[in-house]
Amino acid sequence: MTSDVEPGTTRPGGRTARVREAVLRAAGDALAEHGFERLDLADVARRAEVGKTTVYRRWSTTTGLVADLLADMAEQSVSRSATGTLRGDLRENARLVVRTLTDPRQGPLFKAVIAAATCDERTAEALRRFYATRITEWAGCVDQAVARGEIPANTDGREVIRAVSAPLYYRLLASGDPLDEASADRAADAALAATLAGVYTADTPDTPNTAT
Predict the structure, then answer these.
(1) Do residues 201 and 153 make contact, with C-beta atoms less than 8 angstroms apart?
(2) What is the pTM of this model?
(3) CA distance 197 to 211
(4) Mind telling me which PANTHER family this protein's record contains (predicted)?
(5) Three-state SS for 96?
(6) Rounded CA separation 211/51 (Å)
(7) pLDDT at position 4, please?
(8) Which end of the chain offers a freer environment for a tag, N or C, measured as fewer CB atoms within 10 Å?
(9) CATH topology of domain 79-196
């Protein structure tokens, strides 16, 4: 779902952490520039200014490197917003997705990873774990909205968050339509309208849904 990774984020640590950071940054740059098919461990080592042996020993394959890159991106992802209303929270989520997907580095990087996931199961599993982390993080704002009585009880927060970002990824990967704040807000508002109508509740179809 939402990528939610602000460019330029770093994390302090010892030598091992610094090597990992440099290699993952280099891997992300290479993916953004050339895509998954041209990702090469030797090139990543050169970009990161570390020994090839270190890269091959720790990551072994390009798919292993991409899996670790996605894990790192999930660790560094921006925490969800808390605006006080579900509409505000969903708009913040959608705008963060748009900022990420339109970033000069992050946008091409995600396209490359998604393309790789279509033909490599290990990459696909890593991508699923990444999005599961982000969806779970942002689903909390839906749970809070339920507690405030804004939306129907038993609303599935994960489904709501998926509904926010799905049209934005469609624009990125399929239609080529603009990705901007207006499209982000429309996606959030559409998901909210469906949520208020009870579309994402766990109730049976014959059970009326009302906010408590």
Answers:
(1) yes
(2) 0.81
(3) 10
(4) HTH-TYPE TRANSCRIPTIONAL REGULATOR RUTR, TETR-FAMILY TRANSCRIPTIONAL REGULATOR
(5) helix
(6) 59
(7) 53
(8) C
(9) Tetracycline Repressor; domain 2 (1.10.357)
